[in-house]
Structures
1.
Amino acid sequence: MNIEKTLGEKVVEAAKTLYNTTIELSSVSFQKTNKEFEGDITLVVFPYLKVSKKSPEETARQIGEFLKANAPEVAAYNVVKGFLNLVVTDKFWLEFFSSNQQSTIHNQPSTTMVEYSSPNTNKPLHLGHVRNILLGHAVSEILQAVGNKVIKVNLVNDRGIHICKSMLAWQKWGNGETPESAKMKGDHLIGKYYVEFDKQLKPQIAELKAKGISEEEAEKKAPLMLEAQEMLRQWEAGDKEVIDLWKKMNGWVYDGFASTYKDLGTTFEKTYYESETYLLGKELIEMGLQKGVLQRNPDSSVFIDLTADKLDKKILLRSDGTSVYMTQDLGTAVKRQEEFGFDRLIYTVGNEQDYHFKVLFLILKKLGFKWAEGCYHLSYGMVELPDGKMKSREGTVVDADELIAEMISTARQTSEELGKLEGFTEEEKASLYRTLGLGALKYFILKVDPKKKMLFNPKESIDFNGNTGPFIQYTHARIQSIFRKGGVDPGSIKSTINDQQSTITKQEKELIKMLYNYPAVLKQAATTYNPADVANYVYDLAKEYNQFYHDLPILKEEKEELKNFRLALSARVAEKIKSSMNLLGIEVPDRM
């Protein structure tokens, strides 16, 4: 049942009858009625003024009269300037609900690859990674929900000077320490030595600066940095001792990452490693030179001139023949296309890399790869804390594992204060704290539009009131509690209505409308890669249900048919809350 299509066809009829003009159904566009006005669906009439040759108000009135007379679904209308607000009959909403159908999603399924997480192996995952992971995972789930085949991939930066810094520091000051002997997760242990390297480097830089050398030069010439550079050269030359140390330390990190990914509820179909991809792309350079897309400098370095595209000249191969990140990304994109034949490739990366991806996609197009049109940078803002930004080298990041533990602890404290745990075993309590803590963290981050910078406040996120994960989780548990009290199996409740029922309350109608709008919300979220659309929808649904619960009797309703209808409505709302939250990676408990 699709009210937009039904009424759209009637608008086409209206244009023919009233103005002797044929318009395409695809050109008829509806939107939700502004909450300030009465109505369920709104037609913007400005596009029809050329054919009506009347004012916006008169055009809207004429079309409104036609629809009221010829569309049984329209109960009434009102006009606000050029907006025609239509009131849809209770009968339509009741029939939609009784049919147990979804409104239709018109979607063209595709194969979509989503890259997210993309950590470095010199430190544990932090709050910035958490936003990245939750965003990439939720977008993947939403795209899958509207019919796409989704491939989740990770690209691990496991080589380079920053990795050597941790390795060298461990070699010098680690005394053979392991995750087991230190009783630390492997990624935390390596992060500890990354911070230690910076700590030991600072006095060397200060000493050189005291001799009149600039800070930039002092950092390059500091003995510790020269040792790290030498270790990188040994790695690139395949030195067995360095490679063995690299494999051992990276192995510790991967074990640590796996634990955090499990806590956050995400997995990947494939993980790429920069140590395996950093040489990719060199053959593309030759192809680009032959096509005349790329040019060679006198010093043998290779570049592309993008000044005509209002960008700059970009080096793709250094004079010594080594590649840059852009070259690697070009090669990795081509390799992925060869492996998976995707229609879309979405890179989940912070907005500080906006320019990089503009250049990457443009180069791919200039090299003749048509599929580059399907490449997209899911750019997101940084996460900040009430006391400012985070810095990895100085050890001032908010560690992901510590944050998860803090959220679970806060959920425990809040739940105990509210006294919501009667009848729970200790095991059930622990499970609930985890569900609430992770739900609070995920929802607080995902309810914000990805493009916006966000301030993360753990205390605010765990509140059981307001726009939070726990509020929505509590609403789901409240509905399940109704079923338990009434001895009702929600799966067996029939949503059919009594033949004599022709009207519904405002609260019931609002809930049915929200159920009807769910596919449109999903489609919007999938089109814009914005999980906040789903997050804010499910919050509005939970809020609307709580108003319904407050205003109308359910189990105490004396009319059996009406009681069953409200139970069925509650069951459908619970289903939508659960499915929406699951798309965000959030579990909803049956008891709280």
Note: Residues 3-88 form a domain with the Gyrase A; domain 2 fold (CATH 3.30.1360.70).
2.
Amino acid sequence: MVLEEEIPRFAAWIGPALLNFGATAAAAGLVAAAAAWLVQAIGYGPLAAGDRVYRGILGGCADLVGSSPRRVYALARLAVQESLRRNVLVVLGVFALVLLFAGWFLDPANPNPGKLSMGFVLGITNFLVCCVTLLLAAFSLPADIKSRAIQTVTTKPVRTAEIVLGRTLGFAAIGTCLLAVMGLAGWFFVIRTVAHVHTLEADDLLEATDAAGVASGFTGRTSLERGHRHRVTLDPTGSGAAETAQGHRHAVSRSASGDWIVGPAEGLLEARRPHRGTLRFLDRDGRPSAKGISVGNEWAYRQYIEGGTAAAAIWTFSDVTEREFPEGLPLEMIVRVFRTHKGRIEEGIHGTIQLRNPVSNVRSQAFPIVAREFTIDSLFVPRALEAVLADGSIRTIDLFADLVADGRVEVWLQCLEPAQYYGVAQADFYLRAGDGSFAVNYAKACLGVWFSMLVVTALGVMFSTFLSGPVALLAALAVVLVGHFRGFITRLFESQLTGDTKIQPGGGPLESLVRMATQESITVAWDPTPAAQAIKAADTLLLAPMRLAAGVFPSLAELGTGDFVAEGFDIPFDLVAAHGVEAAGFVAAFCIAGAFCLKAREVAS
């Protein structure tokens, strides 16, 4: 799942983000000025070094303020022409070859083919676009300086800030064109990959009867396509639906000639808008529990509840209103199963879902479900439903009048089969609050790739102003690699301050070193001995500067939103806006730093 927490509103996010950016930029600027003064002091003395640094800062600021848009545009156009002379468009041929041969390696029988193909397309597009622009940015300026071609620019009335900004915009324009072509080709590739058609013949169906022996419809299976079939349940008229398999379903109808028509796949390429709740557990005796049962999986993302007991997973949904869900609650869920004995594996594991009022404890009748692996199941809870009263009697109630209290309602999940287990996480149950356009959602994912491309382009240009091409490339890759762990460092520091090991187990550098030496599990809490307290205090001191430095490194993984599209969830515009502002902040910072570095370098010598 891609959403464990609600995305904050952009209006609430932007204020603290700007303060944090300003503090980080100020700290980085002071460190850079101090380093420049120290280097100058070695050769010219403290006073002269201070004067040189002061004049350099004033000159750099004057260059930034006095930059001309016309000269920047001219330099950007030169950067585009230079990129074309280097045959950068060859990468489009590479991308086409990758798509042509992708069918050999993408398994059509994958449990989630939409996620597989979408993740592949966005991943390869991100990799190729960022690699091309980074290579151009890292090697272009050092090559011009080495060949002295830069003198034809610096002898004209061109400022250093204009050189840096012009190259950044030029290479970014090349990357934008490449992304547009790759994104469009990737769209058609995904549509073609997931499209398939099943057939349904009379021989595939059996007549179903009710308890009185009266014909009630048909049951059967569709033809085998892309490594899967669908179970089919039809009414007496021949209309119905094919059950969910591989993350999608099909509508079934009967033509006037008596043939069954299986519709196109539904549910593969969607942009669901989830309304999420919070999760808590009851143990096998029905008592509140901090978490579910661990079945030994190394990745403890999901917790499990035991079947045939009072164990339950309970989601509490807030802000549930009649205006948002006028017809009822469209509940969607992912339930994993863990079997202690195989049984009839094709039938799934049976369980129930119940709605309860968190205040009055009025509960609805149980809705039966059958959990199968790798599927997203849905359950529509209507406005009028049956409820079980305290005396065991049953009456019809209204969903919002009797089960929703102050906008809150509880959804209880229980497994019915003994010795079998249901596995769930907080993000696995949600109310489907609507749908967005998949095409728009795909475009927003490509916009996330564009943000990453802008950041690596500015990063490469910055390092190329004072390093050789290969070294600038390695430095940019190192920054990207460190930025990949920015979220981990943030969670580790928060866990160290709060003492909550659930945020990030394992402790800081010294604690991790001790655990590795003693081969102690990261899940085992330390006793509060003086030695343990001293190690934790030292780790806090070590993590504090690491946490501050982490803000300087961009995280391309956090800028990417491909997981949303692959999982079938709509990318919130608040998240897109936040990523856009973050990318703009990094690009501006890198361009300013590159302008100062280039001014400090005697390029005309």
Note: The first helix runs from residue 10 to 44.
3.
Amino acid sequence: MNAAQAEHRISARIEMRDGVHLATDIYLPAGEGPWPALLERTPYGRRGTNHADRSLLDPVPQPKPQIAARFAAAGYAYVLQDCRGRFDSEGKFAKYLNEQPDGVDTLAWILAQPWCSGRVATLGFSYGAHVQTALAAAGPAGLGAMFVDSGGFSSAFHSGIRQGGAFELKQLTWALKHARLSPATAADPQRRAALEAADIREWARVMPWTRGHSAVSAAPEYEAYVVEQWSKECFGPYWQRPELYARGYYDRFPDVPMVHMSSWYDPYALTATENFAALSKAKRGPVRLVMGPWTHGQRSVTHAGGVDFGPAATLDGNLAPDYVTLRRDFFDRHLRGLDAPDWLVAPVTLFVMGGGSGARTGEGRLLHGGSWLRTTDWPPREAQPTPWYLREGGRLDRAAPTSDAQVTWRFDPLDPVPTIGGAIASGAPLMEGGAFDQRETRDTYGARHPGRALAAREDVQVFETPPLAADVVVVGPVVARLWVSTSGRDTDFTVKLLDVHPPTPDWPDGFAMNLTSGIQRLRFHAGYEQARPVEPDRVYCIEVTLFPTANRFMAGHRLRVDVSSSNFPHFDVNPNTGAAAAVPADPVTAVNRLHFGRDRPSGIVLHLLPAPRT
């Protein structure tokens, strides 16, 4: 029986507690119910198409109704709902902030329907993952399983909206794109014209956006959330609400089977690993973690940016036949109690990048390779946290320094280091996620010298090992501890971890491949609850949290750490004045210093596997 024969759709407008109605489609199996239900809530259109809903064999993304029909054919009532203020739903959209009460009310409505068996699971990607953890943080009865893919903030303040005190500018590109797609814009030609005229490439240089002075001024509900998130630079009640801070509500999460899936070049890599690490210890679950080498949702392709990881990299054919099958069998097994295949046989399934030839593929990408690792914990129990020290002369060494030294650079906020790849989503047209040679191109936003390596900039400090004598396998969280000072009243420090491929005929200059990065705003040196202007030229010790990673540094490669003061437009640029995030300020150039020595052992901590394994 095909999907079209196995289901029929009914539509409803579900009333929330405040009287707002949310547009909802329900796809029911043929025959008599009741059935277990799957709930997907989305701001992207319940009848639309998401770029992630594709497979290796069918690379054209499938519309959501088609996917819902496949689940209905497998015996599930599939519920698709437009989030408040989006597409056909009533109400005003406030990004992230209404999702817990709306999710709780929708779940209660489903449980009261005659076609529902009383067992409901949630699923969804990106924002569709955020709404799941917001719902779970309420501890609702009737929630039977969760498949949380590339989202579900462990703490949006620490990763996803802000990081290290800096603001992620993907919120700007997202706001303009989706303000243009909102119901209010469709109904207002003047608003639509104003939004279409806004040039995000120019507006991205405006620091910060303020009410009435932004690319989305014509859409005040979108402007409001951007201005609010940007201005709330300290960690407090705003950031501790359940939609943004699963960390604070893990004890309320129902003890149900759940999967947390993300990827190394996804802005929710830290979220997925943190949620798994906490919930797998607190719940019987079972709780599973999957981390691939992909960009946001691109689990059916072998590449991320300018790097290819080989045929083993896809979810399809390696972890399960395809993404729909993986989720269906997970729900069959844990929601319905069927003897379905358990594709995720270990608690943790990770793709360890590296091991490839380094050749140039036919598409012009570097073949970095990689393979899957199945283990029990995050980080793996056998992975030992190991410090690597920054040394004089640009060395990166396992041995701690014995003499004091420092490096100095001038950080000009008007000439920030351009973003080239990384853990990015929704950044178009300003930036693209993934792994790239860290070299400016004509397509790099903010590039002034196409062809120049970022390492050649005077404000990028490079520390690297000699060519490795043997493979080094890094799997786990990444944290840098730096001793720093600045001439300014504030500044930023950025850290990037790279795998440097040696020169070859395909890559005569080598290939400096970014793995992960982080940023720290210095005025939060004593904690995020309060901003404290720094004393010029005083030395501070800071920690910079990078995104997690898993990579095999092959013999002959170099392990490299870059330290600088900007990563734009991934993050907003610090004006070095100490001004609050919501206050426009004329930028000043700062002289920044990185100190290292016996009493100031600046370095980075990597989790090393004791021997290469996959």
Note: DSSP finds eleven helices and 26 strands in the chain.
